[in-house]
Amino acid sequence: MSRRLLCRAIAIILSCFVLSATQFARAEIPDELYKALKLSKDATPKEVYDAIVKRYYDPKQGHGKGAFADLWEPTPFTRYLEPKTLYVAPDMDFEVKRTECVECHTSVTPGWVHSWQKSVHGNLDEIRGLPAKDSRSYKQELITGVENNLHSMGLLPQGEKLREVGCIDCHMGVGKEAGNHKTDLHMPDAAACGQCHLKQFAERESERDTQSWPQKQWPDGRPSHALSWQANVETAIWAGMSQREVADGCSMCHTMQNTCNSCHTRHEFSAVEARKPETCSTCHNGVDHNEFEAFMLSKHGVVYQTQGSTWDWQKPLAKAFSEGGQVGPTCQTCHMEFNGEYSHNLVRKVRWGFEPKPEIADNLNDPWFQKRKEAWIGTCTQCHSPSFATSYLGMMDSGTKQGIELVKEARGVMQKLYDDKLLVGQTTNRPAPPKPDADSPGAFAGLFFSAGNFPTAIDYEFAQMWEQHIMQHFKGLAHVNPGGFTYSQGWSKLIRSLARIKDADTQLREKAALEARVEALEAKGKQGWLDLDTPTKRAAAGGAGFGLAGLGLGLLLLPAVRRRRKR
Q1: Helix (H) or strand (E) holding 364
Q2: How far is CA 55 from the centre of its chain?
Q3: Per-residue pLDDT tens digits for 271-317
Q4: How many CB atoms lie within 10 A of CB 279?
Q5: CB under 8 Å to 537, separation ≥6 — which residues?
Q6: What Å distances lie between residue 95 and 98, 103, 179, 454, 525, CA to CA?
Q7: In this structure, are residues 474 and 403 in contact, taking their beta carbons and an 8 Å threshold?
């Protein structure tokens, strides 16, 4: 081979290598992320990762303790929920080697070790040896992508395969052979996972860039998993309340910005587990966003519960319907899909957010909302006709707007009561919630803080209306659970709360009118001559008293005077 041909061959090989190394990072990551981070679509995995992590760790862009950091202190447990900022390793100052982790923890924490041994991390070669027909064989390509990422970042020598993913790789650093158990140990966060799983990390982080509400109904990037922690620590009452252990309950779900193990249970990281609705249920349940309950009670949920055991959960989501035998939707098949592609960006079809409100209802004809509705129709038509999907989504929007009207009516009543200072104890016994929160009728803070007459019963009732009942109404509609938006939840609860608020409004105003009448009568009574409420009246009364006393004395002395005259 001539020198010229040899150079050309080397150039082609290098080009193929570079293409291979960058291909995985580019695939399916939304363009909005590249634009926001000022990256070329040809960027290497290292360039993509470095740019994402720089923003990810920026306190000005949602990382850390948030804007109210001076107002709250973490509990010992909080450090596990935001490990990068708060975690402190145990005081175990000794050196460990890669092989010693499993040896020791097999007896100390066997649950961790058993989970890891069952995981893909625990036996990469098993995946590499799978035949093409095995449902898990698609993971062979994922491992190659991971190796490309690590090659690009300099964490795995070029041309070398990944032998294993051990404890030390996640808890001390990829490829480390030894470290100090006190100074080098850390709790992995999403960025640590992202070194290997760059595509998934980038997709999740792209939620910040694809969720920009056209009329600013929500802050940019929210609500989303990518900024869930920021939403948590910058919610005024959660930052200001002194009961930090209770606040940690909110943080336990809002930790998704910081870690991946809310969905991918740590140490085993089962994809099968992550693909099932129960994975979402830990956070997506309850009075303010009852997605799981609404889904499970819907026809979709019934199909999942009665037939899901026959589906091949090892198949990737993109092949769940075509090859996995799946005949009904799950949370993942609807919310991770966008225009036929599946990713870890779950917000590209979000239209109502976590609070259906007039600012959204009034703008549903905006192209931003229309495009997202069209994307939903595309999702639904995997199983339904376009006309069926369109009619139901129209029904969902109209029903949600009808619920919003009830909330608006209640808000007007509550605001008028508050402006007129008629709420129970409003002028005498209504302490403000802790800073940075502030008093308002039906405040969110009233669900978490109580002092004096804050909140009143109808404050709490109204907070339930706008924060919970309307969400149950919308979630019942969105998840096709009839009882969830008509009678059991949603609409009927909105009606009940509105009735209670109207009753209270009538009673408070009648009481205020009665008090005003009594005061008027009292004021009128004070105007009588017997009320000695002024110096003049008292002086006049004193003079009259002396006069009466003199008259009485005269009457008493009159007989004596007459007898004396007769003598």
Answers
A1: none
A2: 20
A3: 999 999 999 999 999 999 999 999 999 999 999 999 999 999 999 99
A4: 21
A5: 529, 531
A6: 10, 14, 6, 55, 89
A7: yes
